[in-house]
Each structure stands twice: as C-alpha cells, then as structure tokens.
Amino acid sequence: MAEIPTKRVVKGLIADDAGDLLIVRRTLDRVWNPGGWDLIGGTVAAGEGLAEAISREGGEEADHDGNGLKIAWRGLVCVFKDFDEVPRQQIVDTSVFEGGVEGTQPKPSLNPVEHTESLWLPLPDLLEVDDLPEQFKHAALEHQAKLATLLD
C-alpha cells in the first residue's frame, strides 16, 4: 500500500494593537478555497524550518512590495492535520503561528496573484465569516484562550 504524501503548511494569525485579526481573500483561481477567506501563509519549502517558512510567507503575502506589514512572530498557536482530496489525496499538516504588527495600524501589501483584499476583524466578527475555514476559527479561539490565561 502506497504511503499518503504529507504537505506541510504554515499560517499566521496576525493581530494589530487593538487585537483585531487579519484575514485575506484568496483569488478565484486558487485550487484550495477559491475566493474564500484565509490566513496569511502557505507551503513549507523542502528543507525549510517552520519559523523560516512563516517568516518568508508573511513577507511574500503581507509585505509584497516592501511597504506593507512588518510582523513580529511570537510562537506556535496550534497544529492540525487534515486529509485533502483537492488537488490530490494528501495529508495537510498545518502549523498556525501568532504574530503581531510592528508599527502603526497597517495595511498589508498583498500579492495580487494570491489575494484580492484584506480585513482586520475582532474575534467575534471573524468567527462569523462564512467562508473562513473552521480550523482557522478554532486557531483564533485557542489564541484568545492563551492570551486570557496570560492576563489572569
């Protein structure tokens, strides 16, 4: 029996100074979740570590032209695995990192090949976004729970 391949992915749960979280809308030609909302992130390159991958992806997707977000990555929020049949059968191993924005209220400089728009939302509003995958909503809730325990 052939082994099912695993694709490693990193995602960033990025908060501004007010605690609002960044989501981005994917272009319609994306294979996974076309036109849907997503977190910044992408595939881990061969030989690349997770911290290196989230730093690279954050730069490529939120600071595309050098005038966008500067992100300070703080650590891992959660890891989850999914079985994905599109575009091929594979296990997707996703690591979600938390990050904060360096500087004033930012506007991301998006890569137009991958994303069409961005929104900063407080957690209750983010949880109501219909086409944001449930695992990312779960990651946002875990992030908030960790913050709450730090403040207690």
Number of strands: 7
N-to-C series of helices and strands: EEEEHEEEHH
- CATH level 3 topology: Nucleoside Triphosphate Pyrophosphohydrolase
Strand content: 35-45%
Q: Gyration radius, to the nearest Å?
A: 15 Å
| CATH homologous superfamily descriptor | Nucleoside Triphosphate Pyrophosphohydrolase
Instruction: For the largest sheet, list the strands in their spatial order.
Output: 4-1-6-5
Mean pLDDT comes to 87
CATH architecture: Alpha-Beta Complex
Explain the overall architecture:
The mean pLDDT is 87. The chain has a single domain (6-151), classed as Nucleoside Triphosphate Pyrophosphohydrolase, CATH 3.90.79.10. The strands form 2 sheets. Strands 4-1-6-5 form a 4-stranded mixed beta sheet, with helices on both faces. It is of the alpha+beta class and 152 residues long. It is built from 3 helices and 7 strands; from the N terminus they run E-E-E-E-H-E-E-E-H-H. It has helices spanning 50-62, 123-126, 134-151; strands at 6-15, 21-26, 37-38, 40-43, 71-84, 90-101, 115-121. It is 23% helix and 36% strand. Strand 5 (71-84) and strand 6 (90-101) form a beta hairpin.
Quick structural gist:
By secondary structure, the chain is of the alpha+beta class. The chain is built from 3 helices and 7 strands, in the order ββββαβββαα.
